[in-house]
Amino acid sequence: MLAFSYLAIACWVVAGIIWWKKRIIALAIELVGCLLWFALIADLGLKAGYWPLSTPEEFLLVTIGFAALIHALAEIGGEGKEVGWLLPFTAAILAFLGKGAFTTEPLPLPPAFRIFWFQFHTLTASIAYGAFLVAGTVALAIMLKPTENSPKLATIMALGYIALTLSMLLGSIWGELSWGSYWAWSLKEIWALALWLVGTLYFHTRALPRWRGRWTLALPLIMAGIALFSLLGTGWLARRLTLETLYIF
Fold first, then answer.
1. More confident residue, 194 or 110
2. Domain residue limits, the chain
């Protein structure tokens, strides 16, 4: 399993390296990495016997896959050659950090994690976080090279915003059915709400003349930072502050 994960990581690193000179080939290699990564996730789910989005580690793995897939699909037919190079490297780094989940022995899931609402709550959340990671890397690339642009940035942001909104609705239904509360103010819910509020600000301000340029690009970058901390730092924060939370992903 680890050998295939390293192969997927290598695909993303190579795609990032050759992005400027061989963009079409880089896209093809990135998609190969996506296929390998999702095949590993499917194998993990089959071996565990449950939806492979049921632990924080699995959520990170699936989010990485969606980020790379959304990025590759968004870049097909795109004109800007120098705004897409960051995401393959970002996916490779995150994949390297999370690859150990493929060899972890699965544990029995609580009944609340096996119901329909939870499964699609985590699926839509993973799509949203993946989209925001893509948007953040594209925004950063544009800020580093202002002569480049990506007309698909707003579309990627819209995908993430819609998926996050749907995830929060599904999560509230799951929370009511499982815990007796639509909203519990857990760490994960607070970070998701912060992400949604910044996304709302982005769509309300991007049409304003004084918010164009770097100010508009700063918001996707902030959202990518929030998404990264939610993926990697929520568990650490919960332990650091000795907080009780129902789940951290």
1. 194
2. 2-181
